[in-house]
Amino acid sequence: MKQTAAAVTVICIATAAVLLADAPRVSRFALSQLEARIDGLLDKDTCNVLGNTRGVYLDNYGAVFTTLVSLRTEVPNPFNNFTPKKIAEIHATKLKMMPAVREKMRQSLLLMASSSGLDAVPPDEQVVFDVTLFYYTSWEDMHGLPKEILMQSSKRKLLDVQQGRVPMTQLESLLKVQEQ
Length: 180
Fold this sequence. Notes:
Blueprint: H1 2-22, H2 28-42, E1 47-58, E2 62-71, H3 84-114, E3 126-133, E4 148-154, H4 155-162, H5 171-174, E5 176-179
Parallel strand pairs: 2-3
Antiparallel strand pairs: 1-2, 3-4, 4-5
Helix pairs in contact: 2-3, 3-4
């Protein structure tokens, strides 16, 4: 009888270990709540979110969020005939919008790091935000405009800024930024 009880105990412990090992550290629900908040932050004066932001937690790496946006300008339609002058105006407008897009990305990273939805992400893991920008490649001047911007930092560094331990003016130096 004692052997059967011991065997059952071992099986229960092993089953619990397997179930806990497979459980995601960050829930899908928590990620979806953050996705919606990021969409709300981005969808303002400068850009339209074309596809809902998507987040994923990668064990031993961190939380990664991606989205596709279009900068707010005139869009082609059968009644618009874009002249070279109009194309240049649209290009200049988009260039002026890029600092605001980058600022919204930095705000999003701070939001993600301090969100209760990412409480389970360890402080030394990464928080990443990747924005892909949509362009009309058939006619649009993309010179000087990035196709993609990726920003990342450790959750700890972002929280240090969010909680005032590091001045907001130093945020840019704490980020790894890649543009292409």
